[in-house]
Specification:
The chain contains six helices and eight strands; from the N terminus they run E-E-H-H-H-E-E-E-H-E-H-E-E-H. It has helices at about 25-35, 35-40, 50-60, 115-130, 145-150, 180-195; strands at about 10, 15-20, 65-75, 80-90, 95-105, 135-140, 155-165, 170-180. A hairpin with a 4-residue loop joins strand 4 and strand 5. It has one domain: 3-Layer(aba) Sandwich (Aminopeptidase), CATH 3.40.630.30. The relative contact order is 0.14. The protein has about 200 residues and is an alpha+beta fold. Helix 1 crosses helix 3 (about 50-60) and helix 4 packs antiparallel against helix 6 (about 180-195).
Amino acid sequence: MPQHNISLESPWSRIKLVPPAVTDDEACAVCRTHPITRRYLQFLPEHMTAEEAGIRRATRAEDSHILDFNIHYLKHDETTQFAGVTGFFNLDEGNLSCEVGLLVAPDLHGKGLATEALYLVLQYIFEERKLHRATFETGADNVGMRGWLEKVAGARLESDRKECWKKPDGTFTDVKGYAILESEWKGRVKNRLINRMGGLPL
């Protein structure tokens, strides 16, 4: 299965979700291994080469249950910068569900790019793919991400799984599970994210 050719443009013209490409492999490897990224995702590799990122990209493109995007930040000078990754995986077409992932490059934290990226990927999931349910997981110790999922994204806490993710030291992290249904997206989450971004541009 070849790499998809789907691109999603933000109405706020700050980011674009694009198919993963070899030109971003090095930046993706840096993002996935950055100490800030790995602070609450210690199962991610401590070291990764651009070549290894390329192998991962190609392998995931072959899996029909995964749809990855790279986030490109559109700067004021009209150039673009790799800003992270998002997309969905564990696609269950029978039950119309998937799990969403999102990583923003640490040097671009605090700019609202995660909210904008989430808006685009959820809009695609619910309005283009017509899925019924999107789920998210984060470490119970990741208070910042949990707060963002609850207060910004409007996701609903559904589960508390004990000792779920194994850390390099052999201990385990509890994991919180969140979900957004299609009806919740249409009923409140979509407008919540739009309002968080200051409303749709005129």
